[in-house]
Write a structure and sequence with these properties.
Layout: H1 3-10, E1 13-14, E2 26-27, E3 38-40, H2 44-52, E4 57-60, E5 72-75, H3 79-91, E6 97-100, H4 103-112, E7 118-120, H5 125-134, E8 140-143, H6 146-152, E9 157-158, E10 167-171, E11 176-180, E12 183-188, H7 195-207, E13 222-228, E14 242-247, H8 253-263, E15 269-273, E16 286-290, E17 307-310, H9 314-322, H10 326-337
Parallel strand pairs: 2-3, 3-4, 4-5, 6-8, 6-9, 7-8, 14-17, 15-16, 15-17
Antiparallel strand pairs: 1-5, 10-11, 11-12, 13-14
Helix pairs in contact: 3-5, 4-7
């Protein structure tokens, strides 16, 4: 691409008069950069390396020092927005399969679908840019960010949420037993709270004729339980009265709390939320504790509670629990929660 076309497409400001007029690829990782590439970064150290490796241009959000006037130096308001504009242009005349879903259904789809034919986007725009361009044409690409999809590929397909048609035969707070399409599935790691989203994921797989193993459905990052003792040592599923519940998406925390309040009205509930976060109309049995990092879980040692909803990723909580005794804890967590 020529620098002239890049400027028109991205709205970038060219700060000098370079001797070169074009570039080969857009690169955001210094280790992948080759001579002739356009490098996007705000890190002075990486920019210095990029110049030494023969980059034809540098794009940054600030007026970094022009160390080599022979190459192009651009300033943009946002590297992320620049990447999104480039991505939309790259996809403009290509047929791709993008899907939008709510966060919970998305998590079940990610747990059930084979990863060789799917791509699940996160909030890292640079990583999403690289992964989308590297994906094969038949890859199914999913996101719960509707604005992102509207920006890069407006012709996406919504995964329509439907009321579940599963025949529920038994339920606990964290698991469901049900009949689905004539077959019985006992103790599946899906709380009744999320049956609609789970059934939506199952129906999506059926319509797309994708074989899945329902019996191997794992707990997802939403409402993910970890049974512990009073010293926060992990225990086997269902063997204690103390449960840490990971809920990384803060927009779902009130929903999770109301579910516990309704289904376990006797329980003492703790809410471990970031500074400033609030849930309205809490019961007298509920306490709020500031939790800005996983280290704040230490505040629970010796505290009397039944359920502690923690606004952290389940993987981070799991790592915190594993550090206590890796050889003993890792097999236990795998057996009970995977």
């Amino acid at each position: 691409m020529t620098f002239e076309n890049f400027t028109e497409l991205s709205g970038a400001t060219l700060r000098n008069a370079p001797a070169v007029a074009s570039f080969e690829r857009v690169i955001t990782q210094i280790e992948r950069l080759e001579r002739g590439d356009l490098f996007l970064s705000n890190l002075p150290s990486d920019i210095e390396i990029a110049v030494a490796k023969g980059a034809h241009g540098i794009v940054s959000e600030s007026n970094v020092q022009i160390s080599d006037p022979e190459i192009a130096w651009f300033r943009v308001d946002s590297l992320d927005r620049t990447l999104l504009k480039l991505l939309r242009f790259s996809l403009l005349h290509k047929k791709r399969r993008f899907f939008h879903s709510d966060p919970v259904t998305l998590a079940y789809l990610e747990a059930l679908l084979p990863h060789k034919t799917t791509l699940f986007l996160d909030r890292d725009i640079a990583r999403s840019y690289r992964r989308i361009l590297a994906a094969s044409p038949d890859t199914m690409i999913f996101s719960d960010d509707k604005t992102l999809l509207e920006t890069i590929y407006p012709d996406f397909t919504p995964v329509q949420k439907k009321k579940h048609t599963l025949t529920l035969t038994h339920r606990t707070l964290f698991q469901s037993s049900f009949l689905y399409r004539g077959r019985y599935y006992p103790r599946i790691k899906v709380p009744p709270l999320f049956l609609d989203e789970y059934a939506t994921a199952l129906e999506f797989c059926r319509r797309e004729e994708i074989e899945i193993d329902i019996a191997k459905t794992p707990f997802i990052p939403h409402f993910h339980p970890f049974f512990v003792n009073k010293n926060l040592k992990p225990q086997r599923y269902g063997t204690t009265d103390h449960v840490l519940i990971a809920q990384e998406d803060t927009t779902q925390i009130e929903r999770v709390y109301r579910y516990l309040e309704k289904e376990a009205g006797w329980a003492k509930i703790l809410l471990l939320l970031p500074q400033g976060a609030k849930i309205p109309s809490l019961s007298e049995r509920t306490r709020e504790i500031v939790c800005d990092s996983v280290a704040d879980l230490r505040k629970l040692e010796g505290v009397d509670f039944h359920f502690a909803i923690v606004a952290q990723k389940s993987a981070i909580i799991r790592e915190f629990l594993e550090r206590q005794n890796p050889k003993e804890i890792k097999p236990l967590l795998k057996e009970s929660y995977d």
